[in-house]
Each structure stands twice: as structure tokens, then as C-alpha cells.
Amino acid sequence: MAMAYRTGPILRHQVDKAFRLIEIVDYPINLAQWRSICERDFNRRYVASSQGSIVTVENSIGYVQGICIAYPGTDPNYGHILDVPVFIVATVSDTAGVSNALLGHLKTVARADHCSYMIVANIDPNVWPAKGSDPRRGIVIPIAV
Questions:
Q1: Contact status, residue 118 vs residue 143, Cβ threshold 8 Å
Q2: Got the DSSP string for 74-94?
Q3: Can you give the pTM of this predicted structure?
Q4: CA 103 to CA 48: how far, in whole Å?
Q5: Beta bridge partner(s), residue 140
Q6: What confidence score (pLDDT) does residue 117 get?
Q7: If you average pLDDT over residues 100-125, what whole number do you get?
Q8: Which of 26, 58, 67, 83 is 20 to 30 A from 103, alpha carbon to alpha carbon?
Q9: Is the bond preceding residue 135 a cis peptide, omega within 30 degrees?
């Protein structure tokens, strides 16, 4: 099913909606902590856009169906990378479409930051992923220029 999505940095009205996806995965953070993380992201955007970002995919009727968190980083094996410790898709009708919307946005960000690779981490619901989490376990995606 082809749908139109709004994909980009999280917006203030999406914060609580996006938390539902974080909650589904059972990360050990509560709504107040999530709001604080998002507030730091909003404030950081005005300082430097290359510091990392929370990205959402919203469908045409306002449901947040995907979310990821991405940071530029350095990996000893892959060099300059886009580290994606959180990548969640929650939809019953268009998993491929939502995933492709997130991945497309991330690839654009990675190219703009001259990253050679993107590493999308496996979900570990026992640990809230910190920037530069080690060891990096996940899918390595080469970024074509």
C-alpha cells in the first residue's frame, strides 16, 4: 500500500505519540525522561544540526509509525559513520514503506555528513542506547555517494 509520509526531525506535537513506540520496545525510560531527551534535541538543533537527531515518520492522518535516533560518529573499522542506536517501525499495513522512509532520510543525512556507512543497532530493550554505544552490534549499511 503506497502512502505519503512526513519524515524528518521530531516535532513538538509528536513527542508523546513517539513515546508510545519507545514504550512498545520496553526501553527503560519513562515519559518524563523521554520528554527531556526530546527537549535537548530541540535545543541542540539551534546550535548544530550535525549533533544527532530524533527522526519520525508520520502518516497522513497524524500517526507516528516510525522513529529513529541517529548520531554521527567514528568506528575503528568503518571510519566516519552514522550511528543509529534506535530504529523502530510500528505499522500493520506498510512496514516496507515506513522503513524505506526512515532509511531514505537517514541515508540523506549520512551523505550530507560525508559518512561512508550507517550502522543500525539491534534492539536491546534492557538498555537505553547511549551515543557511541559499544560494541556496535547491528546492520552495517554502505552509503553510496
A1: yes
A2: EETTTEEEEEEEEEEE--SS-
A3: 0.86
A4: 22
A5: 119
A6: 94
A7: 89
A8: 26
A9: yes
Cell triple for 137: 552490534
Residue 81's pLDDT band, with cuts at 50, 70 and 90, is: very high
**Residues sharing a CB contact under 8 Å with residue 92, sequence separation 6 or more, in sequence order:** none
How far is the CA of 94 from the CAs of 1, 14, 51, 100, 112, in angstroms?
Answer: 6, 20, 30, 10, 27
| Domain boundaries defined on the chain | 5-142
Give the pLDDT of residue 2: 57
Q: Looking at domain 5-142, what is its CATH homologous superfamily?
A: Gcn5-related N-acetyltransferase (GNAT) (3.40.630.30)
**Cell numbers describing residue 138:** 547491528
How far from the centroid of its chain's Cα atoms is residue 134's Cα?
Answer: 18
Cβ contact 72:82 at 8 Å? yes
DSSP secondary structure, 38-64, as one string:
HHHHHHHHTT-GGG-EEEEEEETTS-E
**Arithmetic mean of pLDDT, 130-135:** 52
